[in-house]
Structure formats: C-alpha cells, structure tokens
Amino acid sequence: MWNTPNLLTMLRIGLIPVFVGVFYVEAPWASYAAAGIFGMAAATDWLDGHLARRWDQTSPLGAFLDPVADKLMVAVALVLLVQADPRTLVVLPAMVIIGREITVSALREWMAEVGARAQVAVSSVGKFKTTAQMVSIILMLLWHSALGPWVYWLGLVLLYVAAVLTLWSMVIYLRAAWPSLSGQVSHGPR
Question: Helices 149-181 and 124-141 meet at what angle, rounded to 10?
C-alpha cells in the first residue's frame, strides 16, 4: 500500500493546499511557483501510473486515489482561475470540464455496481483531454508573469480545446454505457 506510486499520488493531494496558498500570495514569483506546483502535480499524475505499471505496484488504493487526486487538483485550479477571472469566457470551459468529471465519475461508479466497469475505461481521447487541460492550466496560472498576456490567452485557447475533448470523451463513455443505462442489457435485479 505504501509504495512509490501511491506516495506520489498522496503527494499530489498534499500539494493542493500548498498550491492554493501560493496562488493567493501577492509577489512577483507567485504565479511561477503556482504554475510550478501544478506542473509538478501534473507530472506525478503521469509518473505514478507509469511506475505502478512498470514496477507491478498497482493496488486498489492507487486505482481509487489516482483519479481522485487528478480531479481534485484540476477542479481546485479551475475554481481559482474562475475566481481570479470570472468572465463567461473562463467560466464556460471550467463548468464543462468540472461537470464532465462529475458525470463520468458517477457513470463509472454506476457501471461498476452493475459489473460493467470495463465498458467505461479511460480512452485515448481522455488522455489527450488531460494533457490539454494540464498544459492550459499551467499557462493560465502564468498570467501575472513576465511572459505577458499572450501566455494566458494561449492557455485559454487550450482550455477550450480541453473542454471540447472533454465533451467528446464523455459522449464516448455514454455511448459505451448506453446499453446498460437504457436497460438493453440486463444486469439482474436492482
């Protein structure tokens, strides 16, 4: 249970309050530090899964915590970005991404209950979505940096790309689950 991949996942969860604290610091270095902390968390998201598979250290705890840590970090970052820039332009993709995460998490939980969890496994579209999402958030966190406002706007464009991929991957999951959701596949009494 206390293997390296699980410790990396727990580190990612532990970085959330540090990330929030640094986000609110009013200093020239704060946006770089917040982006760095988020980037480190994003890197551990990839690294913990890679190490778990490579070292054969997958565990039920890791399978549970990894997606939770990812969703928590992204949701917190999006809420902070919306709070800092509450324009509809920022709110819409954040709303889509957070709403999709809740919907797909509920779908996966329900599919697991009926014994069909494998039908809603992570897709390649979901992996592209995650990459676009992480890069966009890092760029948007750099909005007060010396790099200039173009970095923020590039991040916002990527956030829209992530939102479109988010909707696309949600449709893929819902289509895979539709036979179970519509009652076309019987899973026994409920």
Answer: 150
